[in-house]
Amino acid sequence: MRRLSKLAPLLAVAMVLAACGSDDDGGGTSEGGGGASAGEPQAGGEMTVLEDTAFTGSWPAGLDPATNTTGGANLPMMQSIYGGLFLLRSDDDGSNAAVEGNQAESGELSEDGTVFTVKLREGIEFSDGTPMDAEAVKLNWERALASPCTCKPTWPLAPDGIAVVDPTTLTLTFTQPYAAVSASFPTSNVNWIASPTALEKQGPDDFKINPVGAGPFKVVSNQLSSELVLEKNETYFEEGQPYLDKLTFQSIGGDQAAYQALQAGQAQAYEGLNTTPLLEQAQDNDQLQVSIQAATSPYVIQLNTKTGPFTDPKAREAIYAATDFEAINEGIFGGRYEVSQGFTAPGGLFYEQEVDGYPEFDPDHAKELVDELGGLTVKLGTISNYVATQINTALQTQWEEAGIDVEIEDYQLSTLIQQFTGGQWQAMLQTAGAWDPASGVGVGFRFGSRSPFSGVSDPELDQLLADAASSIDEDERGDLYQQAAELIASKFYAPFGLAFAPANISVKGVHGPGLTTVIPAALVNSQVIWDEVWMEQ
Amino acid sequence: MTAATLPRVPGNRDPRVSRGRRVAGSPALRLIVKRVLMAIPIIIGVTILASWVLSLIPGNAAQQLLGPQATPEDIALLEEQLGLNESGVSRYLDWLGGAVTGDLGQSVVSGQEVSDLLAERLPVSGELVGLAFVVSLLVALPVALFAAHRPNGVFDRISMVISTVGLSVANYVLALILVLIFAVQLGWLPAIGYTPLSEGLWANLEGMILPSAAIGIPLFCFYTRFLRGDLVDQMQQEEYVTTARAKGVGSWQVLLRHAFRNSSFGLITVVGLNLGALIGGTVIVESIFALPGIGQMLLQAINTRDFIVVQAVVVVFAVVAVVANLIVDLLYVLLDPRIRYGSR
What we know:
Chain A is of the alpha+beta class and 537 residues long. In chain A, α1 runs parallel beside α6 (255-263), α8 runs antiparallel to α10 (363-373) and α14 (459-470) packs antiparallel against α15. Chain A has a seven-stranded mixed beta sheet with strand order 8-9-10-1-11-17-12, with helices on both faces. Chain A contains 15 helices and 19 strands. In chain A, 61% of the residues are buried. With 344 residues, chain B is mainly alpha-helical. Chain B has a domain at 123-292: MetI-like fold, CATH 1.10.3720. Chain B is globular. Classes of the chains: A alpha+beta (537), B mainly alpha (344). Chains A and B meet through α1, β10, α6 and α12 of A and α3, α4, α8, α11 and α12 of B.
């Protein structure tokens, strides 16, 4: 969703400038540091966090959970203001990740998987002093589900499926078992509960600018997609939190400008660094600490099996045989990421790096197949962002060595959508998967027969993915996802690649979960828990 | 002899012609009225063009906001919520109807009043452009004069090297280099952010120095080279310069009182034409320096296809361009007696 490719030329000078600007002493690299070993949190301090204008730093529709159409990108702002009913937490290195209650005390799925009961903590208040009770949550859920935002959950909700049991208890009733319900909360708009009283008092237009929640911070000022200034919410339910007195999110035009602003001491953190040369510089800078987040969505080369050259399985097999993601990972990314053979990734549930029967890289076999086909010409597209276009260029080189004629193209978001909805695309480099493959848009988005963004129409695969999403037996879910990955490989539907994740960088002396430790990305970006971020005083 | 046939030179006015009629008949006023009337179709034309160009860019606000995972149902729902179901022509006419009565409408995406957004952001861009423009011009004038005083001398050659380098570097690269030197290495100036003037003059200015330098340095280089070249031509080729020199007028006096006055016409024209590009430069520079100006707002509005906001910013740009050209023409009137007292 990176839209600001207009600033892409900055990347051309990134390496030169970064090299000039780093305090390179050959050490000081800190990945995932500053967590457990950081000592006791200290209260106080003001922090400025930079967010890329092209993604997280763009909140043009405001910050009301029900009307913020970019809520999935604006996790830092939404978590700071609203806190969240549930949060994804993990050990400092990103292992043992699990969804845990935050403003919700618990979330329990019934044995048959069709009823989810949410119990709220007692006594939580919004920052305007009104109670955050079950009625407030129900109203928020109804508003959130009516939103067009892709950050709303895809629950198989029964009619009138939201019920208030008592002032602190609600139930969700589904039409079919839905195992991914708790995993659907952390990055969706149902997780963020706004004050109904403030909403009514201000009206929706003003509320989206000055939202009121029960999160760790209150809004001081909000200039959309530019600057959000927050101050500590003294009535936050967690005793002693948040640690920071003031938190400012500042939108900035790209990795290079953000990196230099950090070096100049103008900000204390930057979320979502993608540019590899800058990442290397940051790791060598003894004033900065780097936390490479745990990937949950590996890259995949979607092949359109519905039209064009990839209706022929031989052509798809040739692509598998011509593709060497290990070499791309080593050559471009210094071997920094893991290469997955399926839609699961190291930071996610059900991760299996290898898939039985996955076709090996075999350029000679690729050449034979291309000869048998009488030649193969492919148009390979992707979205305009640094990592994706780097990978596509490398793929073009590899495929051409196997005798495949390749035309590469990168698209702005809207053009990319048109390519998919037009149905005439041939190959697309995308990401697939999520922390829980069934949550959010899930794997079905890339491989489901009915998805406009899928190149596959296979009822057997549809059934496997549906069964995996509805089973409440974790082992069975894992088996079903592995079977789905094997089916994708055996039919040569889509070669999978490296599991990339952006990095968070911060100045020394800053600590916090997700910022200086690793929390897996539930969808695209990982969530920092801002209540617990602190600065050495 | 009637008033109409009186030679219109100072000190020879017909006392029977009232001051009001003289003012009404002045070239400057006629020019202002003419230009204001001409500005109306220009600005409307620019907004039509902007509307048309925006319609050519794939995707509408709903698609842009919802991203690649949006279903057709989600997009249709948001289109309805944002009022995007009407045709582009109909939306343009609605906007124009409001704009002529002073109502610039509300942002399609955020619902905020566009006039409030402009009031919030225009001062930031105005200060940025103003500083870049004034400082670049004030520095360029003496540098060009010194360079032209001794063409191919040491000063001229140094200024030429600096100007050539300055002209060769894009302003976003220059911005990053300036930040690297003055914010990262030396720590003298902030790398990002804007402090309103109400919080102190220096606090405000120190945040604007690097962004305005990023825009102003290429301008300074351009003005310097342009003016220096024109001055040298005047000094070497024009007969009035030879005449002045023959009368024993000193070289600095010839340069300042004769050549510079003539060269200033070309400079004024270039400055007027440059103002549009100057405003365009704010788009990238404001993003790099995290300045909440209209350049940053325009970029975001284009990304979200926020038609109403784009139109408002385009109107601002068009008005600035028209006013800049009007000022240039008025300066011609002021500087050139042939225009001031030219025949009707």
